[in-house]
Amino acid sequence: MKMKDLLKGKVAIITGSGRGIGKGIAKMFVEQGCKVTINDIDPVPCNETVEEIKAMGGEAIECPADVTNVEQVNKMVADTIAAFGKIDILVNNAGTSRDAMIQKMDDRLLRFIIDVNLKGTHVCTQAVLKEFLKDERNDEFKKIVNFSSTTGVSGNVGQANYAIAKGGIIAYTKSCAREFALNRICVNAIAPGFTETRMTALKKPGDKLGIPQAIRDIAIGAIPFSRGGRGGLPSDIAKIVLFFSCELSNWVTGQLLVGGGGSMI
Amino acid sequence: MGKFDGKICLVGGNLGKFKKESFKIGLGGVIAKKIVEQGGQVCLVDTDFEITKACAEAVGGNAKAYECDFFTDRTYETENYVDDRGRNKTKVVWKNFPALKMVNDIVEEFGKLDVLITNFDKFEQKRVDQTDIELFDYLRDQNIWPTFHLLSAVRDQLSNQRKTQGTYGKVVILTSMMGKAGMGAAAIWAAFKGSLIGLTKSLAREFGRFANVNAVAMGPLSEKKMQGPKDRVKGAYLTTSTDLSNQPMTFEKITPMVLLLASDDAIGINGQIISVDGGLWLKLEQQEEI
Questions:
Q1: Are residues A176 and B128 in contact, defined by beta-carbon separation less than 8 angstroms?
Q2: Domains of chain B by range and CATH?
């Protein structure tokens, strides 16, 4: 069975969609008839993703922006409205990790991870609220999808900063869901397990991102669905985001859904 | 014989506040008092040294006040060394880390550190659309930084103590059940309380071999946290509580769980977030008009 046009006529902003899971979401949304704003801190992958989407026959604009910067995010929202006339869906996917054991973790590293993940989610949410809270849209269901992580749910060794940020996003999601329930804004969160992206790729000497092979093996070994082969794919996570973004989930808010291929039950 | 005989306990945060010149003891102070009553040695620390000193006086016994700066960025340098098996290793040498210095001072004076209880909390009520970046940064710094600095500072000490003295450390982080359930009109504050839950679980894994790390998610202590932006919300928390007394939580209701998790009885409990909220969680799950 192939579902079609689940997001026909909708407009979505997907943060951090130049690469990884965000890119997978953008492509899936476009397949379902959605117009998308592609955002990344890095203009080059941003542009590449837009070109790929245009080649697929979809509509997309590029808005390179730092999600923690209020002016840049406001501009992204304004550009989206200028291009497509409205916003229906916000996917707060932008995030990163820098791992260290707690006794070696300095404040700069802690602040950076909290800011990119949690402050970024807050700044983008705040920016689209002006659009979502308009009186004439009071009867529509608007969607916000936040990204937590299995680390936020159950912690992980060497990821105290990431767990702080992602654990915060769970509570933030529930708080926003309570606060905007009367405005019919559905705010939900996804907690992906180990997913194949730049963040979880094999770390080579000199790389800031990535993880060692031994840790990768343990993480993949803990995913029953992968049968020892690989982590989840961006498209696996994108399907969950699609559910939270389309009208199938209109009656769902303040929920956390773990997508880990059986790694967390 | 008390539960905390011979135990060295560091209690940080919410020790109390000054109200019209007189000192009103806070949850941290009440916990410290109970530990002293049960034979423990209490070391106190808070973001304001005046409060810490006043609290040490109020707690009485052998309570000792420590001054510590939690808000200046810590800096470190890495140092190369060769370990006892001849392998090249690097280690972190902290240059500016007041909390670590304080922990070292405590160990120098008392010989060890058994228990860390953190209770740092700054509450600010604002709707999401009105929360600016300055408030976000303020709440982040006040709610996360002191707890994180203390945990980072005690890690090596607790680990070494396990090897040298055979002790199991106990870490209790106080958070709010709003971090589990979310709270309208205070999303950022609730988010940081949720952050402490994530932190607890991560550290339970990192500290597992030498210390138990647990959290207590307490119900709302003050009327202030129960009021919302609209009359509809006002007092809703009270009416939805299943607590027999139908009253806000009090220090006395929360302290026993903190003491249990800080004592040797908690040896089998790790990485847990235990709600002490008078049954509010049950009702919040049903989303009754909040």
A1: yes
A2: 8-218+252-276 (3.40.50.720)
